[in-house]
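Please discuss these two lines.
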Amino acid sequence: MSDNIVTITDEELSFFIGSIRTFSDYDFTEYSEKSFKRRIEKVLMDYKLDLNSLILKMRKESDFLERIIKDITVNTTELFRDPKAWHTLKYRILPRLKDNNVINIWHAGCSTGQEVYSMLILLNEMGLIDKAKVYATDLNTDVIDVAKAGIYKYRFNLGYLDSFDKVIKENPYNYDEFKEVPYEKYFDIDKVQDSIKMKQFLKDKPVFRKHDLVKGGNIFYTKFDIIMCRNVLIYFNNSLQNKVFELFYKSLFDGGYLVLGIHESMLGPMTSKFEKKGSNYRKKLL
């Protein structure tokens, strides 16, 4: 294939998705067509293949199939992404759980794990880390391996240290209040090696597992006080979103919290089962 821009039709996209379903366990039927099509087009350009050749190679080579699945699943995350969301957790949600004997938290679609470590840092600062059980899942095993290692690019994440300051050191409701928390309490920064490495006590805490939100169910056989699923559902269509919302509803304790991305919202029949507070949804008490 040439290096020109590649475009595929709706029919070709349907053919691709149907083909994947016939020879693998992956089902992308209800993903948002626009974003999914864009990712397939990028894969075709990157590998210089036409659609039929791509499908044939995926069918014949299981390693190649897994590589393509990883290429077309989106993985973007940051330390303390969207500080306002973390302020809500710090001042509104977690204080309500402080008297629990155990606080169960599930990061669904955890990507490379920065959100998981952000939560652990916040829990530690609030004196809650010992009673927390933290689970994290993603479809992509490569990003899970990165999350387990807890090593990130320093220069890439440099700007997010400002977010650390806003959430951990500052109080947005009282600017005179400032808590000096050194970065080295939680991670080692090596500017020469361009790395941020999470401390071992943080890495020892979470349980990471591969999981497909589309059909995986609740693999931990426990209920949760908080489910974090941020900037994942925007890639699903409304029907699939509601299936996932139903999974989350069944997986939350009564009064538990579902935290979505700031550009995500719940629509459809599940809204009657939650109380909406910004980007957060609290499971209604029965």
